[in-house]
């Protein structure tokens, strides 16, 4: 569990969180960089709003997946088959351009005695989504957090997302979807479990 915190710090403290004033000044610089005048009336409160919005959009640094995943229960009448929560919507931001990534996560695990509250799986997606990300890292982080805290027989995570940095700028290809997967335990070693996961994700 320590590894999660070490590799993905929960707060900006390690690199020194700037003051509100510093954040607002930085936004003013970017507004000028965009070509506008931060002193015109419509933009006067914008630095304050952007600083506030950043705290919300990147609130995942303040939260720990271990806290969320720590509460489990065992009374499920011996149920030990796959639990899949699919189509969990999320917004994230790419770490290269700080532009939105919009997508859905599908998360499954094979219980070993204990199960998670279903909402906790969506909360973990939310925690990692509200950080600067690559889709590959986010997929691996969700799988590892569940694997390390719950110790199930296996975890499968699939993310489907559109990257606005590919749609709104750069190569400008709208509508393309990137798929990433991470499998651990039985999902990694047993091809039939992977197929079952894929089939359940795709079945409507
Ligand atoms: N692997 C991966 N790449 C990403 C992700 N989000 C954005 N990228 C890519 O990161 C790359 C950064 O490439 P660079 O050449 O350094 O940056 P750039 O000049 O802005 O690239 P272009 O987007 O091609 O204009 C781009 O190819 C992006 O499409 C992601 O989640 N995973
Ligand atoms: Zn990007």
UniProtKB/TrEMBL annotation:
Annotated catalysed reactions: GTP + H2O = 7,8-dihydroneopterin 3'-triphosphate + formate + H(+)
* Record Pfam families: GTP_cyclohydroI
Q: What is this protein called?
A: GTP cyclohydrolase 1
The EC number of this protein is 3.5.4.16
Q: Which residues are Zn(2+)-binding?
A: 94, 97, 165
Q: Start and end of every GTP cyclohydrolase I domain?
A: 24-201
GO BP, one annotated term: tetrahydrofolate biosynthetic process
Please give the residue ranges the record annotates as the region Disordered: 1-21
Task: State the HAMAP family in the record.
Answer: FolE (MF_00223)
Which family is this sequence assigned to? Belongs to the GTP cyclohydrolase I family.
**What SUPFAM superfamilies would the database entry show?**
Tetrahydrobiopterin biosynthesis enzymes-like (SSF55620)
Q: In which pathway does it act?
A: Cofactor biosynthesis; 7,8-dihydroneopterin triphosphate biosynthesis; 7,8-dihydroneopterin triphosphate from GTP: step 1/1
GO CC annotation terms, alphabetical: cytoplasm
User: In which residue ranges is the amino acid composition biased (Polar residues)?
Assistant: 10-21
Q: Does the keyword GTP-binding apply?
A: yes
Citing just one GO molecular function, the answer is:
zinc ion binding
Subunit and interaction comment: Toroid-shaped homodecamer, composed of two pentamers of five dimers.
Q: Which organism is it from?
A: Metarhizobium album
Q: What InterPro entries does UniProt report for this protein, alphabetically?
A: GTP-CH-I_C/QueF, GTP-CH-I_N, GTP_CycHdrlase_I, GTP_CycHdrlase_I_CS, GTP_CycHdrlase_I_dom
Query: Which UniProt keywords are listed?
Result: GTP-binding, Hydrolase, Metal-binding, Nucleotide-binding, One-carbon metabolism, Zinc
């Amino acid at each position: 569990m320590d590894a999660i915190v070490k590799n993905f710090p929960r707060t900006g403290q390690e690199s020194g969180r700037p003051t509100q004033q510093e954040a607002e000044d930085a936004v003013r610089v970017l507004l000028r960089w965009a070509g506008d005048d931060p002193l015109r009336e419509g933009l006067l409160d914008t630095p304050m709003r952007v600083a506030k919005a950043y705290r919300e959009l990147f609130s995942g640094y303040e939260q720990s997946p271990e806290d969320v995943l720590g509460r489990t229960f065992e009374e499920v009448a011996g149920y030990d088959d796959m639990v899949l929560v699919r189509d969990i919507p999320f917004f994230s931001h790419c770490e290269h351009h700080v532009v939105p990534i919009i997508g859905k996560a599908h998360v499954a695990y094979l219980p070993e005695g204990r199960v998670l509250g279903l909402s906790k799986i969506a909360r973990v997606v939310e925690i990692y989504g509200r950080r600067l990300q690559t889709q590959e890292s986010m997929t691996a982080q969700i799988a590892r957090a569940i694997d390390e805290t719950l110790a199930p027989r296996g975890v499968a995570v699939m993310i489907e997302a559109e990257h606005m940095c590919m749609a709104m700028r750069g190569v400008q290809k709208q509508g393309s979807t990137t798929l990433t997967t991470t499998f651990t335990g039985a999902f990694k070693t047993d091809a039939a479990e992977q197929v079952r996961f894929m089939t359940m994700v795709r079945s409507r």
